[in-house]
Amino acid sequence: MNKTKAQKRIEKLRVLINKYRYNYHVLDKSIMSEASADSLKKELADLENLYPELITPDSPTQRVSGAVLKQFTSVKHQTQMLSLNDVFSVSEISDWITRSKKLLNISKDPELFLDIKMDGLACSLIYVDGILVQGVTRGDGYQGEDVTNNIKTIEAIPLNIRGNQKYSFQSQGRVEIRGEIVMFKKDFIALNEERKREGLKLFANPRNTAAGTIRQLDSKLVAKRKLHFIAYDLIDPQKILKTNFEVYKALAEIGFRVNNFYQKVTKLVQVEDFLKTWDKKREQLPFNSDGIVLKINNREDFSSLGIVGKAPRGAVAYKFSAEQSTTRILDIFVSIGRTGLATPVAILKPVQIAGSLVQMATLHNEQEIQKKDIRINDTVIVHKAGDIIPEVVKPLKELRDGSEKVFRMPKLCPICHKPLSKTNLKDIGLRCQNSNCPSRIYKQIIHFGSKEALDIEGLGEKNVIALVDNGLINDQADLYKIKKKDLIKLDRFGEISSEKLINNIIQKKEPLLRDFIYGLGILHVGSKTALDLARHFNTLDNLKKATEQELENIEGIGKVVAESLIEWFNNPANQVLLKKFEDLGLKPQAYRDANLSTTSKITNKKFVISGTLNSMTREEAIDKIIALGGEFGQSVSRSTDYIVLGNNPGKSKIAKARQLDIKIIDEQKFLSFLI
What we know:
Elements: H1 3-26, H2 34-50, E1 74-76, E2 85-87, H3 90-104, E3 112-118, E4 121-128, E5 131-137, E6 143-145, H4 148-151, E7 174-182, H5 185-197, H6 206-214, H7 219-224, E8 228-235, H8 244-253, E9 263-265, H9 268-281, E10 289-296, H10 299-304, E11 307-308, E12 311-312, E13 315-319, E14 324-336, E15 342-353, E16 356-362, H11 366-372, E17 375-376, E18 379-383, E19 391-395, E20 405-406, E21 420-421, E22 431-432, H12 438-448, H13 461-469, H14 484-488, H15 495-506, H16 513-519, H17 527-537, H18 540-545, H19 548-552, H20 559-570, H21 572-583, E23 606-610, H22 618-627, E24 631-632, E25 642-645, H23 651-659, E26 663-666, H24 667-673
Parallel strand pairs: 2-13, 23-24, 23-25, 25-26
Antiparallel strand pairs: 1-6, 3-9, 3-10, 4-5, 4-7, 7-8, 10-13, 11-12, 14-15, 14-18, 15-16, 17-20, 18-19, 21-22
Helix pairs in contact: 1-2, 5-23, 12-13, 16-17
């Protein structure tokens, strides 16, 4: 990017970041996630590093926080309250350590102090001769707001410093304690539940709620809400405390709550272990966290490193893998799914989100694109949580420069060039109605062999495409016709891999009825519906004979699903497919509850599974729960007995379970119930 373009981009970024900062820090409103704002700030900092002559004193990179609210008396901080520069990888931490060693003129890696970064409101507490006299918010770093009456309502804040022989000097003269005012997640959920019952507007998140609460003019309202103060620093003019590790020990001794997860380390590998541990365990924290604070442990070295702009050189904040970030839409193409659904997909400028490189994101349908006004070349916010397909949340219209292009859905299928149309008036998206469309055939076969359906190992996307393109198969049933001699002729297959795939296919000649129904890829029939159908009809023949009314009478199956099933089984092409399966010897197993045990550990117990299990698929887990007399639920409610946590569990489900005092168990405990 040349200097002229960079300057225009910088100006737009500054306007948008300042808008975000004003809403978030002054009005306590959030117009985008903090992760997205961090992404924009990093882009701005990178451009300013590239063209340092374009840096201005009022740039967001040169300031700490938003303007001070006028409702409170302004108080000047005796020592500036700084914020930290962000790092996003271990390599950036390594670079920071190297720079610190050079500035300190040392050869050995300095000892580091690590702690959890809290998502709350920074506050300074002033004690004179051990008595609390003032509480001041961070404000702009140089001066904050006097919120003394409000912080006195927080029970975690001592009104006088606890006497301690070792740290008696802290009870003499002026002492300043710095920390974070936070609202715990369980208290936030309870507060919103109460507001919901009273018909009041729900709060957005714990951080904004804590900040908004502490800025209330009526301290009685503040007292009604559960806030916590967690200390992280002690301004020590006498410099008696030599390390940040000692500071935490002293804070705990004189009556302040500190995080108990802090650690001092001397090796980068220890830092990496700490980061990985808390990236996985952060959901277990009582408060929200988006990263780890790393400081030079020696206070004298920390101080000697000095300050650059808004941040100390001796500390950085490592940010956990964000679930949101910003990037640019390079182009949009249309993908045709197994049911013919035409889905617009954005090609993105590659960006790291939630620990992986994201290059594409779904745009769902044309109506969604129009509703959000998403255009090619837009800068957009992209969201990715766990294994969910990334999606574009919204465009940042403020950054448009006139190069953006409006996208229109094509009238013809991009694969087979047949018309795209709606199946019925209720259909939101366009579909390719050509059942012989190559894209539909590929994806139907891929779906049939997927882990959630028949689980045919080795039948991945590339192998399916090779089999179809070389004329060996045209549908799912053709898999059972493949011969080893035909496979060996293909570039992708050798003697061993050919034999292995053939054996894997043969092993699935008697699949579970649920797996087979789901594997057929019938519109609106997911894995849970397939299980309900298998349980109710017991055999495939019974399901084929079912009337629309019979289907609608099954709990969880409405008119739309019933109509889709009737249409699928009445379609001549599908009848030919089922006959073909039968002729090739495929026999789905009749559903049986014969193994039901009335003395099972989980009989009449309701389970919710959150995240991905290592030992089995979700569908297999559901089958086992039901076979042993238990119940499976999609969402957490008062009737839930257990929530099973796999990899990347949902935050909201965990929070709800804790609120309702529902037992949270891991996968190993769950497996012990199945024995």
